[in-house]
């Protein structure tokens, strides 16, 4: 195969003939030549594996592929590591399923505290009535 010959080269990954040959990078541990599709897929694998970002809560730097996207209900931006995601999810489920004052499991009816009470979570009927009697 000469430099200016019109012979198609064979891609070492997919075994398809290709006119334009791409040279594989040595970090990929793949033989050259590559077709355009295989070159792009290898490039994307390398790029996705090396991009790093910080966890929003613990500020640890990890690969993006190891970080988790927060749920939309949490109203957060950024990514979380697995441990922070699990903590946030258990805390969210705790606030959703149990009264934030007395820790009783909430039934079908749940009461949201008034904004001027400055409370987080939901309340049972008894706690809501007692706080309303105190604060008004």
Summarize the structure.
The chain is mainly alpha-helical. 31% of the residues lie in helices and 7% in strands. It has 3 helices and 4 strands, in the order E-E-H-E-E-H-H.
* N-C termini distance: 88 Å
> How big a fraction of the residues is strand?
5-15%
Number of helices: 3
Lateral strand order in the biggest sheet: 1-2
Q: Output the radius of gyration.
A: 28 Å
Describe this structure in words.
The protein has helices at residues 36-50, 82-97, 125-135, and strands at 9-10, 17-18, 52-54, 61-63. It is mostly helical and 136 residues long. The chain has a two-stranded antiparallel ribbon with strand order 1-2. A hairpin with a 6-residue loop joins strand 1 (9-10) and strand 2 (17-18).
């Amino acid at each position: 195969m000469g430099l200016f010959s019109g012979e198609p080269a064979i891609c070492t990954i997919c075994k398809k003939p290709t006119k334009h040959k791409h040279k594989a990078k040595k970090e990929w541990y793949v033989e050259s030549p590559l077709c355009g599709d295989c070159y792009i897929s290898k490039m994307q694998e390398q790029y996705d594996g090396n991009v790093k970002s910080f966890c929003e809560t613990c500020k640890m730097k990890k690969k993006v592929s190891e970080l988790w996207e927060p749920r939309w209900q949490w109203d957060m931006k950024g990514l979380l590591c697995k441990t922070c995601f699990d903590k946030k999810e258990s805390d969210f489920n705790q606030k959703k399923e149990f009264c934030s004052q007395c820790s009783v499991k909430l039934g079908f009816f749940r009461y949201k505290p008034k904004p001027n009470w400055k409370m987080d979570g939901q309340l049972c009927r008894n706690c809501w009535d007692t706080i309303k009697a105190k604060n008004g």
